[in-house]
Write a structure and sequence with these properties.
The chain is mainly α. It has helices at about 5-30, 40-65, 70-80, 85-130, 150-155.
Length: about 160
């Protein structure tokens, strides 16, 4: 029979695996520059994060350890006390591996978002910069024309 802790860990693994799949989709969208796909991906990630938080709370309750013990340390203590629960041990190691993968993907996606934001900012600054005096146009009389405020027209 599967212990409650091993079962909860199994559900956590399923949720983290789904989260990783969405992070991979997010990364693909970011690489393609498909910003329209991001709101849907975020709306799919949010409930998974909430579910993972709930499952972690359930797991901590199932460990039946003092409230001061939480997170990874609590699992280490519980596994040391319940060494015969090999499924819980296997699931815990798998969960840690998946969590590390999710963290790495999330950090990489954040870097991609930052790169897109910097590029967008640079493009906006170019498009909104005042025209340079050297790019003035000359009228039929040979005299400089006043700048119109439009970079496209003023640089023609």
């Amino acid at each position: 029979m599967t212990s409650p802790v091993a079962a909860i860990l199994g559900r956590e693994i399923e949720q983290v695996a789904r989260f990783i799949a969405i992070l991979n989709e997010e990364q693909d969208a970011l690489k393609r520059g498909d910003v329209d796909a991001l709101p849907d991906l975020i709306s799919r990630k949010t409930p998974l994060v909430e579910s993972l938080n709930t499952l972690e709370g359930e797991r901590l309750l199932a460990l039946n350890l003092p409230a001061a013990e939480s997170g990874r340390g609590a699992m280490d203590i519980w596994l040391a006390q319940n060494g015969n629960d090999s499924l819980a041990t296997v699931n815990w190691k798998k969960l840690l591996k998946f969590a590390n993968e999710a963290k790495t993907l999330h950090e990489l996606n954040a870097q991609l978002v930052d790169l897109h934001l910097r590029q967008t900012s640079e493009i906006l600054s170019i498009l909104t910069a005042p025209p340079e005096a050297a790019t003035s146009l000359y009228g039929s009389s040979g005299q400089p024309l006043p700048a119109t405020g439009s970079r496209i027209v003023d640089s023609a």
